[in-house]
Amino acid sequence: MKAFGRFMTIALAASLAGGCATTPSTPPEREPDQRSYAEFLADIPETDWQEIAPEDLMVLEWNDRESGEPQRMVIRLMELDYGAAWAANVRAMARRNYWRDGAIYRVIPGFVAQWGLVPDPDAEEEPADPDYLQTIPPGSYIAPLSGAASPDQCRRSATALSGVCDSYAPQVRFVDGWVFGSDGELMWPLFCRGTVGVARGMAPAQGSGVALYAVLANDHRRMDRNLGMVGRVVEGFDLLDELPGGTGDGGVYADSADVHAFTRVALAADLPETERPRYRYLKTESASYTALLDWVVQPNAFYTERYAAADACRDIVPVTPIED
């Protein structure tokens, strides 16, 4: 399968080393770790990795319109209390084959690729959501700070930042391989490149999960605390990047024949074992992850101005395929 081995590329050392500070700081002198990113990951003990449960991986497949080659995208679904109703709705619809006639029907390059049931431009009203979906409680875009959350990863002084920082949140917290912004009492997911969000109409609509989208760039952070999040693309993101933009209103494909119709949407748990994708993430509470963050912000001889900070949107949590 053409897309089988493709997965979201984890940023290389040079890109990860980019800082979110505006004033450079001088890191303490120490011997730099000369390993490459791949070498660093290869040295991590197996016990510091966590396999993603098959219930938390959703597989979406379609055929390339020109070549007919099968394409595949895999999404890690949120398993935390944050947004639990949205994620539960997505799992329920996948299990009931809700998207059997679904497609990627809206693409705005550099913004979003959206999928679901293809809208009927002649319909006077949108179709009703399935009656088995949960109602999304108001205020679901944010959640109380989890007791399992890491300490704030961003250290701020009057002149500099260090650690993992974000321009849109005063704090950065990790929970089970997810990255959240926080104010110390509440937390919310960051809508970085690769995030899978819940489409909705104008407020107070919150969306049910019948239509989803992937964020195609890191500069749409106004979505934070304004839209629901259900997961993150871990394989096939490059396929979304390659899709042509829609020419209709709002990036919708003007001709229904141009949509990218799904051939299968299912949870990995419901696929035959031989067809299940397997992925793992580096445990953010592990010593190896602490070492990784230290490696990310170490002095780099290429740069004359040294920043001891990494941007929270730089794919800071490694997710890798598990090869059988």
Count of distinct structural domains: 1
Order of helices and strands: HHEEEHEEEEEEEEEEEHEEHEE
Uncertain regions spanning at least 5 consecutive residues: 1-22
pLDDT average, as an integer?
A: 89
Q: Please describe the biggest sheet, giving its number of strands, its sense, and whether it closes into a barrel.
A: 8 strands, antiparallel, barrel
What separation lies between the terminal Cα atoms? 16 Å
Tell me the number of helical segments per DSSP (H or I, 4 or more residues long): 5
Helical fraction equals 10-25%
Strand order of the main beta sheet, please?
2-3-14-12-13-5-4-15
Radius of gyration using CA atoms only: 20 Å
Describe the secondary structure blueprint for this structure.
Layout: H1 13-16, H2 37-42, E1 49-51, E2 57-63, E3 70-77, H3 84-95, E4 102-108, E5 112-117, E6 143-144, E7 154-156, E8 161-165, E9 171-175, E10 178-182, E11 186-189, E12 195-198, E13 212-215, E14 229-235, H4 237-242, E15 260-267, E16 279-282, H5 287-296, E17 309-311, E18 319-321
Parallel strand pairs: 8-17
Antiparallel strand pairs: 1-16, 2-3, 2-15, 3-14, 4-5, 4-15, 5-13, 6-11, 7-8, 9-10, 10-11, 12-13, 12-14, 16-18
